[in-house]
Write a structure and sequence with these properties.
This protein is an alpha/beta fold. The chain has 23 helices and 24 strands.
Length: 623
């Protein structure tokens, strides 16, 4: 794996008479520039003025992005790191400016994104005097940061920031530097403080699998009746090789959410995601698997999904500390995912055609036909599927998507067409609502020549909608799509399956188009699918002219088909599929008494149960 830092940037500002001086805060910014950073996010405060002065001095080389809430800045910095692999940078002033960063920094920590957070502090002469907004900030960041330091002298400021960046890259996490404000003004020698060098471009050695390890896995595959791959983002750019292995060994593929797009969606053996943001095919096939081969996968729902039934478990990972984290281990392979797939291809022989694999393909084809049916309908009032139909129509091949937390995660996984050419960003493991706008800011700033979509529900967008003005301020041509149904629908669906009344999940509707126009952002409201083509055509027109645009899509609060409620077991030599008895526990939905009624309730009359498809393909049960 190659490091993502750039070639070193010359920093030394020499004169014929020797080394000059420079404010310590400027020296610090030169270090950050040397690591290839060209913008950072933050909001000014009195305890950060020395760095604001430096940003003005360095404005030709470092772009300051003025966000309207520090949480947005931290989430945007995390998104920068996720999208580019390079460190993202954010800042906050002492006190509330610092605390406001925490949500975004935890998002970075959980998704293994390198982020540098610069924190203001009162002048060192006022520290420990209970001064205004002065408090001990390092303990606050002790949990979230892999590296956290208080600068003790002006001369050490650029050194500590350089060290912090190295630690953030090393740990793929957060580094925090607290800076007493007066230190930034002090003149220090204008020297080369950055440690960036050509060695940072070397490919990093990755663990390789042994013949014995791969042969042991292949023996487990031969013994299995229903093997399944579960693949995470660790597969990186090796998706095509995995497809080849899947065909060769007749093993269907399921993926984690972060791996969407890394395996071609149109590969017949790619069944999609598990659990709730899932495909029916993936959930059903995984539920009957007897061997799971997890490759580069960090699956936060494993303690629920991996415990539903017994199976043999193989885990392939570059980090040995991950072994057994999600399931009891039958075989661990400490290896790079691509190297493991390569050796599996070399040391395996073609498997006989598998009725299980053929059935898995048929299940996915049946599911895809259902998705296509849902996309192709016309609805009034508007439903969510048609929005994705229009996005897919106008999206560039290399479009970037920032998808906020909630139902749009489920719907994007099901309906959004992604390939390895696309980039997309979510708050995956921390799952912070309000990450959509920051992610879109980061995408457009880091990739100014690419089309950027921001997709968010009304609940999530309401948390950060003040920063729509940031899109306007910096002329960022983002297509903002707000799915507005006056409901926290992701949580509403959870409450459907608990014996309780709906509580706290209905929110007041807002006219987001009017709010956007009040910020100077052009916008439209749509209420029927027939309104969508014109709305998206306008979005293209405006964004291609270099301006942001917002579509306020007033959708119903219907629940998408909850495939996670399907349960499978073997009974009297046959497979039986039922609906979880907890489904509709609060009686807010239509009562159903069979799987067929369940499908019909969600306009899925053509869906087939897994036992039906298994019977069609003569898939044997366990004896």
């Amino acid at each position: 794996m190659q490091n993502t830092v750039p070639n070193p940037v010359p920093e030394k500002n020499q004169t014929g008479a020797g080394v000059g001086t420079v404010p310590a805060s400027v020296a610090m910014l030169k270090v950050i520039e040397a690591w290839g950073v060209d913008h950072m996010y933050g909001y000014p405060g009195g305890s950060f003025n020395s760095t604001m002065n430096a940003l003005d001095i360095e404005k030709e080389r470092m772009r300051y992005i003025q966000i309207r809430h520090e949480q947005v800045g931290a989430l945007a910095a995390a998104a920068d790191a996720k999208l580019t692999g390079k460190i993202g940078v954010t800042f906050g002033s002492a006190g509330p400016g610092a605390t406001n960063l925490l949500t975004g920094l935890y998002d970075a920590r959980e998704d293994h994104a390198p982020v540098l957070a610069l924190i203001g502090q009162v002048p060192h002469t006022n520290m420990n005097y209970n001064y205004f907004q002065e408090f001990d900030e390092n303990p606050m960041f002790a949990d979230v940061a892999a590296y956290a330091r208080l600068v003790m002298t002006p001369e050490s400021l650029p050194y500590i920031v350089d060290k912090a960046i190295r630690e953030a890259y090393k740990h793929q996490g957060v580094a925090v530097v607290v800076i007493p404000n007066d230190f930034g003004y002090v003149q220090i020698p204008d020297e080369l403080y950055s440690s960036v060098s050509p060695t940072d471009h070397k490919d990093r050695p990755l663990p390789q699998p042994t013949d014995l390890e791969v042969d042991a896995v292949l023996e487990m595959v031969k013994a299995a009746k229903r093997p399944v791959f579960h693949v995470g983002r660790g597969i990186r750019d090796n998706g095509a090789k995995l497809v080849e292995l899947s065909k060769k060994l007749q093993i269907p593929i399921t993926v984690t959410g972060l791996a969407k797009g890394l395996i071609p969606d149109d590969y017949e053996g790619n069944l999609g995601m598990l659990n709730r943001a899932a495909s029916k095919a993936a959930d059903e096939i995984f539920a009957v698997s007897d061997l799971v081969i997890a490759i580069g996968a960090d699956f936060p729902f494993a303690n629920a999904i991996y415990r539903t039934h017994p199976f043999k478990f193989v885990q392939v990972d570059v980090d040995e500390a991950q072994f057994g984290r999600h399931h009891y281990l039958d075989q661990g392979v400490w290896s790079d995912a691509g190297a493991f797939v390569d050796k599996m291809l070399v040391r395996s022989t073609d498997a006989e055609p598998s009725s299980f694999f053929q059935a898995a393909v048929a299940v996915m084809q049946n599911w895809q036909a259902y998705l296509d049916h849902m996309l192709d309908r016309e609805t009034s009032p508007l439903e969510f599927e048609q929005i994705y139909r229009e996005i897919n129509k106008i999206a560039d091949d290399d479009a970037i998507y920032s998808i906020d937390v909630g139902d749009n995660i489920i719907n994007s996984f099901r309906y959004l067409k992604l390939t390895p050419k696309n980039k997309w960003v979510i708050s995956a493991l921390f799952a912070s609502m309000g990450s959509g706008v920051p992610g879109a800011l980061a995408a457009q700033l880091s990739f100014p020549d690419r089309q950027v979509f921001h997709i968010a529900g009304d609940g999530a967008f309401s948390m950060v909608m003040q920063d729509l003005i940031t899109e306007k301020k910096y002329d960022l041509p983002i297509i903002n799509i707000i799915t507005s149904n006056a409901s926290l629908n992701f949580i509403k669906s959870e409450q459907d399956d608990i014996p309780m009344n709906h509580s706290g999940i209905f929110i007041e509707d807002q006219d987001f188009a009017m709010i956007a126009r009040g910020m100077g952002v052009e916008a439209v409201t749509v209420r029927a699918s027939s309104d969508l083509p014109a709305a998206f055509a306008k979005a293209l027109e405006v964004t291609q002219a270099g301006r942001p645009f917002l579509i306020d899509a007033k959708i119903t609060d219907k629940r998408g088909i909850p495939v996670e409620e399907l349960e499978l077991k073997q009974q009297d030599g046959t497979w039986v599929e039922t609906v979880n008895p907890s489904y509709n526990a609060n009686r807010a939905l239509t009562h159903i008494s069979s799987v067929q009624e369940f499908f019909a309730e969600y306009d899925g009359g053509e869906l087939k149960s897994l036992p039906e498809i298994f019977a069609e393909h003569n898939v044997p049960t366990d004896k």
